[in-house]
Amino acid sequence: MDNEIKTPVKNFIRNIIDDDLNTGKHTNIVTRFPPEPNGYLHIGHAKSICLNFGLARSYSGKCHLRFDDTNPVKEDTEYVESIMEDVRWLGWDWGDNLFYASDYFEQLYEYAEILIRDGKAFVCDLNMEELRQYRGTLTVPGKNSPYRDRSVEENLDLFRRMRAGEFPDGSKSLRAKIDMASPNLNMRDPVIYRIKKTDHHRTGDSWQIYPMYDYTHCISDALEGITHSICTLEFEDHRPLYDWFLDQLPVPCHPRQIEFARLNLSYTVMSKRLLLELVKNNYVNGWDDPRMPTIAGMRRRGFTPEAIREFADRIGVAKANSMVDFELLNFCVREDLNKKALRRMAVMDPIKLTIRNYPEGKIEELDAENNPEDPSAGNRRITFSRNLFIEREDFMEQPVKGWFRLAPGTEVRLKHAYYVTCEELTKDAEGNVTELICSYDPASRGGWSQDGRKVKGTIHWVCAETAVNLETRLYDQLFTIPDLGDIEEGKSYLDYLNPDSLVVNTKALGESSLANTEPGTHFQFLRLGYFLADKEYSPEKPVFNRVTTLRDSWAKQKNKQ
RNA sequence: UGGGAUGUCGUCUAAUGGUAGGACAGCGGACUCUGGAUCCGUACGUGAGGGUUCAAAUCCUUCCAUCCCAGCCA
What we know:
The chain is of the alpha/beta class. The protein has four domains: 12-102 and 215-331, HUPs (Rossmann fold); 106-213, Glutamyl-tRNA Synthetase, Domain 3 (Glutamyl-tRNA Synthetase, domain 3, Alpha-Beta Complex), CATH 3.90.800.10; 346-467, CATH 2.40.240.10; 471-561, CATH 2.40.240.10. The protein contains 13 helices and 25 strands. It has helices at residues 12-22, 43-58, 77-89, 105-117, 128-135, 152-164, 213-223, 239-248, 272-280, 295-301, 305-315, 326-340, 553-560; strands at 30-33, 62-67, 98-100, 121-124, 173-176, 191-195, 209-211, 228-232, 256-260, 342-344, 346-347, 350-355, 363-369, 379-385, 387-391, 411-414, 419-427, 433-441, 458-459, 461-463, 468-475, 502-510, 522-525, 529-533, 543-549. A seven-stranded mixed β-sheet has the order 10-23-24-25-21-22-11, with helices on one face. Strands 19-16-17-18-12-15-20 form a seven-stranded mixed β-sheet, with no helix packed on it. A four-stranded antiparallel β-sheet has the order 4-5-6-7. Strand 8, helix 8 (239-248) and strand 9 (256-260) form a beta-alpha-beta unit. Helix 7 (213-223) packs across helix 8 and helix 11 crosses helix 12 (326-340). The longest helix has 16 residues, at 43-58. It is elongated and about 100 Å long. The two termini are 43 Å apart. The structure holds one RNA strand.
């Protein structure tokens, strides 16, 4: 990735940064990726990660990884581990800049006392229900809390006792004193500390109170010297509060919050809640199910970091809500794997092909290139014999117009091998074709013909004597409709789960080398698609995940008819 | 019916008052031992109306549509 010399596409954030650099507001930039460790990262996070780390790299700045761990009831170290793994896998490096909001708890607490001393925060005894009543609604202003005018001394005393654990959960909160009549609900005396007698995954039982996001995030940014604090659109309404806290407190700097539109991808969901539900209720097989849009799932499916980064670059960054076509992701992974994946032959739905004029018992070896896009990938030897299997789809008894694969009486090339002509076929009682009897042209060895005759069709095959059985897992979209945000009244996203999102095919056959590779290796199965040896792969049970199919202009042509 | 935002090819995204451009998808063709890859060509767009200007996607104005906000979640 370091030798990419692409000029970055302009976007409104880069424009802001360029301005800040030109005007001298900043001489270098610092961004951050601030996940809450309460779930696995998904492709939407990848957009944000690539944006923040990408900006830092592009401007020779820094990007911090900061865990926004202010809510111990939802967070867990399992998630911090997986997040770090995913960010690293995507190819980014935070260096020494690993932070936790929980590292700032003491500082945050001291700042809260300053707010109290300045009369800008108070301890409120309203419970959650009362608080809701007092907050008002979108159209009617809120009412001041009856506890709003407590003295500084009383507030300080109460707040310290909150910290000491003297009060039960939910009985009191610390609130900022701003404006209950503000049309922006976030400014209606927002809660900044709540009591939670819950152990924190990093601070253990040392805190009984935990700061809220709005209060924590801006201060964390300021303490770390973040210059551009990039977040998603739903925080736009929070920006006045972000700025308010920083304006009240003696913080080292005042970062600028910039909001961009989160990623929506067709045929999938991106909400942590929904993804968690899919996992918990076993609609998928865990966070790394290859159908999941999680980084872990995409990694297991066989998407590459390079493809995901390319995707993130291509979708751009803007403020308008949008839905990106999944095909772009497929394009990116094909583009990457086309250069890198070794070619192999495998047959998903085998049909027997016998070459009647090929000597019985003879097995010969032929040369096959590993990757036509990359000569350095070298060649391999593959075996050929009288008994082969080809793809059932590659034969048509009554060929349609434009068909140039195998049919009775027609000649095709077996990739890397010989020309064969179909002369006869056998059928079972139901009339299904069970075997194709062919003849071959011994002079066409290697797939060439000296007389220069044209053979339009080339098909893949495997040698019956040496082929190995494969389990292939053929993945398709998890959902049947592109926009899960737009579903029929009374229906749930679960009603749109694609029953065919996973088809396990155990009858596939592949060339023998496929039983001798490592989990995590990518291949292109000729004419079929890109596959990854799954983590469950073993030589005894070779399991391959289909990452994506190849482009198929024949299928397209067929669909038009 | 409060507040905040956003509307550019089918989709994503540039154009910072001066030729509406790129990518994906589509279509057509060339080439090909993968109907793959590659190459070439092509169609398609400024939400609507008014105004300012020599000139408007861009500025003003009125409307329309969509998204977000009433957690002691982030």
